[in-house]
Write a structure and sequence with these properties.
The complex is a heterodimer of chains A (471) and B (194). Chain A has 15 helices and 19 strands. By secondary structure, chain A is α/β, with parallel strands linked by helices. Chain A is globular, with a radius of gyration of 21 Å. Chain A starts with 6 loop residues before the first helix and ends in a 13-residue tail after the last helix. The chains are: A alpha/beta (471), B alpha/beta (194). The complex binds iron/sulfur cluster.
C-alpha cells in the first residue's frame, strides 16, 4: 500500500500538474470565483498579453463586495462602486465569463452562491481573490484566497503556483452546550490559538462535534480559518454533505451524482496519516463567544471579563493590547455583558445563509428590537433573500424592526455605504473586527447570529442562554 | 509578459530611514480605486510626500532632488499591514526595482517578487551603514548583483538569499504566468482528463 495520506494531501497531489525541484507546484484549479474588486487588473493583464481565459467554464463571476444593499434595481449611485461593477460586466462579456450580476436570481456573496448552486463540490481545488474562500472547504475540498496576480494566473492558465502548506488537524469532541453554535466554536478556537496560530498551515476540522453540524454551520467554521492565519480549512465530506449537494443546480444529477458520491466517499484521511500539528478541544468547554478587541483572536466567553495587560502570555503584546482596548473604548478587566450597543449586523459570508436567518427569526419572533438600536439583516444571496420571503421571515424581521436588505458583503467590510459610524458599537456576525473594518473608527464585537439577535432585542451584549433557545 | 531582465543593477539609492513602513503608508487605501495597475507611483508614500494642500513636503527623501536611482533603502519590517498588491505596483510604477531592508513582511515580499521588484534582506548593521552613507553622500553607487546574490557599496559587501525559482524568473524577465504558460500542453491535457 502507498503511504497513508491526509485528505488535504490527496486532493492537493491529485491536482499537481507539474512538480519540479526548487519550483513551487503548478496546481490545477477546478473552480475559480471572481468579483468586481480584485479582478479588473487581472483582466487587464490578459489584455496586455493578448491572451484569453483558459477555460471559461471553470470561472464564475458575481458582484458582491461593493454593491449597494438597497434599490439594487436602480443604477448604482456611488461612482467607484458603479465603475467596478461596470468594469466587471465589460470584462465578463469580452472574455466570455458567466456573470451573476445585480438583479440576477443567482447573485450574492461569492462564498454563499458557490455552495448554493452546487458549483462547490468535494475533492475540488477552488480559489477566489478573497481570503474567505476557505468557506468552500466545508465540502471537503482545497479552497483558498489569492491575490490579483494569482487571479490573472488562474484566468490565463487555470493553474496556480504554490508551495504545499503544512497540515494541522483540529479535533473537537463532545456535545455542544445550550446556545452554542458553530460561530462560537470557531471564535473559541481562534481565541485559544491566536490570530496567527495556524499561519502556514492548511487545517482539517474533525471530531464528533464537527460531524454533528449542518453544512451551513460547517461553512461558518471553515470560513474563519483564515482568521487564525491558516491558508484554508476543510472538513471531510459525509452523508450530510452529499444530502446538501443533491439536486443543486450545477451539481451532477441522477446516475452521475451516485457515481460522484462513490468517489467523494474516498475523500478522507487514511488511518496512520501524519499531520504536522494536531490540536484537540472539548466541545463542553465552549460557550457563547464574543470578541472585545481588534483582531479575531481577542475573543472570550460572553460571561468572562476582558483580560488585563498583565495577564497576557506574551509581554510584548501589551502595547498593541492597550492600543486595541483604547480604540474599542473598553477597560481592561471589565465585563462586556450588559454593554450597550448601537448597531447589529447580521450578514457576511460567515453567517448570512438561510439557516442563520431562520435561527435569528426563531429567536425574535414576536419580539421587538430595543429602541435606539439599528439592525441590518443582509442576506448572503438573492436565493437566500427569496427563500426568507417565502418562509415569511421578512415579516418577522419587519415586525421586530429589523431591516432586511438586498444581498452583498455590506457592513462586513464597509466598502459600500453600509458603514458603522465612528465610535459606535456594532455586534456583528461577520469575521473581522479590525480597526476601521466596518467604517472609519467603527467598533466591532464579533459574535454568533443568536448572540447578535439577542443583543438586538435587549440593546446590549447579552448571554443568549438567558433566552429560550432550542439548541 | 516580458518584464525587464534583472541581472545586476548599479545605481544611487533613496533612503527612507523609518521602521515598520506599512502598506497604508506606501499607498493609502483611498488610492486603491483604480482598475488598472499603472499610475500608482504618483501616490507612492502620498501622505509623506505631500501635505494637506498637496504641496510637496521638502524634507521627505522622494522630494529631495539629491536622491535618485532605482533602489529604495528602508527601515526594518518593510511592507507590513494588508496584503494589497497595490503597494508593490506603486513601488514599481515609481521606478524602483530594488528595495533594501533588514526585514520584509511576507506577503509584501511575494507581491514584490511577482511584480519585478527585488527585495534584498540585509543585516541591521549593513542597513544602518548603508542608510548613513547615502544620507552623507547621495551619489553613492550601490551594486545589487542578483546572479551572485550580493549587495555592495564603497567596498562593503553582503550576500542575500532568494528563492531559486524567483531568481530564475527575475533574471530571465519572466513571471509566474510565463512559467505556467510554458506548461500549456500539460495543463490542457489535465483539463481534458479531469
Ligand atoms: S462578506 Fe466580507 S469576508 Fe465575505 S467575501 Fe464579502 S467582504 Fe469578504
Amino acid at each position: 500500500m502507498s503511504q497513508p495520506k491526509t485528505i488535504f494531501e490527496k486532493i492537493w497531489d491529485k491536482h499537481v500538474v507539474k512538480r519540479a525541484d526548487g519550483y513551487p507546484d503548478a496546481v490545477f484549479i477546478d473552480r475559480h470565483f471572481i468579483h468586481e474588486v480584485t479582478s479588473p487588473q487581472a483582466f487587464d493583464g490578459l489584455r496586455k498579453r493578448g491572451i484569453g481565459v483558459f477555460n471559461v467554464n471553470r470561472t464564475t463571476a458575481t458582484a458582491d463586495h461593493n454593491v449597494p444593499t438597497k434599490d439594487q434595481h436602480l443604477p448604482i449611485k456611488e461612482a467607484l462602486s458603479r465603475h467596478q461593477v461596470e468594469t466587471l460586466r465589460k470584462n465578463c462579456a469580452e472574455f466570455g465569463v458567466e456573470l451573476y450580476d445585480l438583479g440576477h436570481p443567482f447573485q450574492g456573496i461569492v462564498h454563499i452562491i458557490g455552495p448554493e448552486l452546487g458549483l462547490t463540490l468535494p475533492g475540488m481545488t477552488i480559489v477566489c481573490g478573497d481570503s474567505h474562500t476557505s468557506t468552500h472547504g466545508a465540502f471537503g475540498n482545497v479552497a483558498f484566497g489569492i491575490g490579483t496576480s494569482e487571479v490573472e494566473q488562474v484566468l490565463a492558465t487555470q493553474c496556480i503556483l504554490q508551495y504545499k502548506p503544512k497540515t494541522m488537524k483540529i479535533e473537537i469532541n463532545g456535545k455542544l452546550g445550550k446556545g452554542v453554535v458553530s460561530k462560537d466554536i470557531i471564535l473559541y478556537i481562534i481565541s485559544k490559538i491566536s490570530a496567527s496560530g495556524a499561519t502556514g498551515y492548511f487545517v482539517e476540522y474533525a471530531g464528533d462535534a464537527i460531524r454533528s453540524l449542518s453544512m451551513e454551520a460547517r461553512m461558518t467554521i471553515c470560513n474563519m480559518s483564515i482568521e487564525m492565519g491558516a491558508r484554508g480549512g476543510l472538513i471531510a465530506p459525509d452523508e450530510t454533505t452529499f444530502a446538501y449537494i443533491k439536486g443543486r443546480k450545477f451539481a451532477p444529477q441522477g446516475a452521475a451524482f451516485d457515481l460522484a458520491v462513490e468517489e467523494w466517499k474516498k475523500l478522507k484521511t487514511d488511518e496512520g496519516a501524519k499531520y504536522d500539528t494536531v490540536l484537540t478541544f472539548d466541545a463542553a468547554d465552549i460557550a457563547p463567544m464574543i470578541t472585545y478587541g481588534t483582531n479575531p483572536g481577542m475573543g472570550m466567553k460572553v460571561t468572562d471579563r476582558i483580560p488585563t495587560a498583565n495577564e497576557l502570555k506574551e509581554l510584548n503584546e501589551q502595547v498593541s493590547f492597550k492600543k486595541s482596548l483604547e480604540y474599542m473604548g473598553l477597560e481592561q478587566g471589565s465585563q462586556l455583558l450588559g454593554k450597550a450597543i448601537d448597531y447589529v449586523f447580521i450578514g457576511s459570508c460567515t453567517n448570512a445563509r438561510i439557516e442563520d436567518l431562520r435561527e435569528v427569526a426563531a429567536m425574535v419572533r414576536g419580539k421587538k428590537k430595543a429602541a435606539g438600536v439599528e439592525v441590518w439583516v443582509v442576506p448572503g444571496s438573492k436565493q437566500v433573500q427569496e427563500q426568507a420571503k417565502k418562509e415569511g421571515l421578512d415579516k418577522i424581521f419587519e415586525a421586530a424592526g429589523f431591516e432586511l436588505r438586498e444581498p452583498g458583503c455590506s457592513a462586513c467590510l464597509g466598502m459600500n455605504e453600509d458603514k458603522i459610524p465612528a465610535g459606535k458599537y456594532c455586534i456583528s456576525t461577520s469575521n473581522r473586527n479590525f480597526e476601521g473594518r466596518q467604517g472609519p473608527k467603527s467598533r466591532t464585537f464579533l459574535a454568533s447570529p443568536l448572540s447578535a439577535a439577542a443583543a438586538a432585542i435587549t440593546g446590549k451584549v447579552t448571554d443568549v442562554r438567558e433566552f429560550n433557545v432550542k439548541s | 509578459m516580458s518584464k525587464e531582465k534583472f541581472q545586476k543593477l548599479i545605481s544611487p539609492a533613496v533612503p527612507i530611514a523609518v521602521e515598520n513602513i506599512d502598506t497604508d503608508q506606501i499607498i493609502p487605501a483611498r488610492f486603491l480605486k483604480a482598475t488598472t495597475r499603472e499610475g500608482f507611483g504618483d501616490n507612492l508614500f502620498r501622505d509623506w510626500r505631500y501635505d494637506g494642500n498637496n504641496n510637496p513636503i521638502a524634507e521627505f527623501p522622494l522630494n529631495n532632488a539629491a536622491y535618485t536611482g532605482k533602489i529604495l533603502v528602508a527601515g526594518k519590517n518593510f511592507g507590513c499591514g494588508s496584503s494589497r498588491e497595490h503597494a508593490a505596483w506603486a513601488i514599481y510604477d515609481y521606478g524602483f526595482r530594488v528595495v533594501v531592508s533588514s526585514f520584509f513582511a511576507d506577503i509584501f515580499k511575494n507581491n514584490a517578487l511577482n511584480n519585478a521588484v527585488l527585495p534584498v534582506v540585509v543585516s541591521d548593521q549593513f542597513l544602518n551603514e548603508l542608510l548613513e552613507t547615502i544620507q552623507r553622500d547621495p551619489k553613492t553607487e550601490v551594486t545589487v548583483d542578483l546572479e551572485n546574490q550580493f549587495i555592495s557599496f564603497n567596498g562593503k559587501k553582503e550576500g542575500f538569499q532568494i528563492n531559486a525559482y524567483k531568481k530564475t524568473c527575475l533574471m530571465n524577465g519572466y513571471d509566474d504566468i510565463d512559467y505556467l504558460l510554458s506548461l500549456n500542453r500539460e495543463i490542457k491535457e489535465y483539463d481534458l482528463t479531469h
